[in-house]
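All the exercises in this workshop are built on plain-text protein records. A record pairs a protein's sequence with a compact description of its fold. The structure tokens are whole numbers drawn from a learned vocabulary of backbone shapes. Once this layout is familiar, the rest of the handout is easier to follow. An example says more than a description, so a record of this kind follows.
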Amino acid sequence: MSKIPIILGIESSCDDTCAAILQGQKILSNIVSNQDIHKIYGGVVPELASRAHQQNIIPVVDAAIKKANITKEDITAIAFTKGPGLLGSLLVGGSFSKSFAMGMDIPLIAVNHMQGHILSHFIDEGEAMPEFPFLCLTVSGGHTQIVQVDSHNKMEVIGTTIDDAAGEAFDKSAKLLGLSYPGGPLIDQYAKNGNPYAFEFGKPKIKELDFSFSGLKTSILYKIQNNLQKNPKFIEENLADLCASIQHSIVSILLKKLEKAIKQTGIKQLAIAGGVSANSYLRSQLTELAKTKGYSLYIPKFEYCTDNAAMIAISGYFKYLDKDFADQSETPSARLPF
């Protein structure tokens, strides 16, 4: 095989068991095994997630190796998600990775999940990549951050949520509307036929570049409850408009802070990452903003928005170049600092 390093990436921070093979920055395989069991509970059940990871990890890695058309002996190093995430889930991926590294006598690389989302922009698929420095809006079910990215290994969070994440606001709002889990994509779907200005909700007043979504969630709750008392069919009759208005409120909060960050830093290279970056309204509003203001915008492919192992493998690749290796004493962290 080529001397270009081949990295096996393992992602198991929540409910998806993922394995990917990258040769340098080029993707050879990217396998994701979803856990449908959580839908009936309306959210991820940590104990069930970790048990499913134990069942899925070996078949998923085997599938990734076969699809990449390599053997396990060709793998140069293994990278895994150290955190943040569900501790039980992280332990499965971490334990497998340490065992694999020891058995194959190859380097072990620990990766921060959120940094992985950002570095997914550097998977080489023939498209333009961000130039340093750039600002990345990382938005998921557990995190909402504005990150200044100065290099592959130098990043600083300059704005973060002080309570709930944007993705959680989407999912909790969807639950209030009686939509199934995960609700964020359903809000996006129904919102396409709705009026984003039909309903107004409370706007957070948070200083600097930080976010808050708990007040917005409460405002949405009260709006729905008050109207249901007057009209039991309120949600049914206004579902599209409610979804569009909720989505507009969340995206407006995100873009307002991002524009503030652009003014403060002078950086006009923008990127988005994380599960919520798959939202079509966020993508369209950001695209319009970049076009109007002359910013450069980088939007990941849909398969790199949600949790995946390709982003862990590309992070592992850059850490491999820096010889930033972990040892067998490495332990996962549910609240790993950025």
